[in-house]
Structures are given as C-alpha cells and as structure tokens.
Design goal:
mainly alpha; 2 domains
Length: about 80
C-alpha cells in the first residue's frame, strides 16, 4: 500500500493496473518511472538555483536508491557506475 494515498484510492489504482495486460503493465511502470526521473531531475536543478550540478546523475541515483544500500555498499556501487 502506498502510504501517501488513502487505502481505498490505493485499492482502486491497483485494480486498474491489475486489469491491464502484462505488457501494458510494464509499459505503464516504465512511463511512471520516466516521469518520476524527470521530476527528480527538475527538483535537484531547482534546488541548485536552476543550473544542473556537475554530479546530477549521482544525485538522481541517490534520490532513488540511497535507502537500498548500506553506506559502504553504496560507495562501491557509485564507484562501479563511475558516479563517485
């Protein structure tokens, strides 16, 4: 359940998504992720006075995935991706 949405709305959304064919569900998820990435990028740029910071890709990555890794593991991932 999405904590930011009333349970009945979350249930309604899940029902709508569940009614889609599997390929359409994947397409919808991809569109939602793309939209989320655009919004995160715009938010970071806005916080930086309207200019893209040199570490924009790292900031986007951290906004999405920082809570998924312990600090040491995150450093390894960033290094591996060339975002260190």
């Amino acid at each position: 359940m999405n904590r930011h949405v009333a349970p009945e709305e979350d249930s309604r959304f899940r029902g709508m998504i569940g009614a889609l064919a599997p390929g359409n569900r994947i397409a919808a998820a991809c569109r939602m992720f793309s939209t989320a990435k655009v919004l995160v990028r715009a938010g970071i740029i806005s916080q930086c006075g309207g200019k893209a910071p040199p570490d924009l890709e790292k900031r986007i990555f951290l906004r999405f995935y920082a809570s998924d890794f312990e600090h040491a593991e995150m450093e390894k991932v960033l290094d591996r991706l060339g975002l260190d």
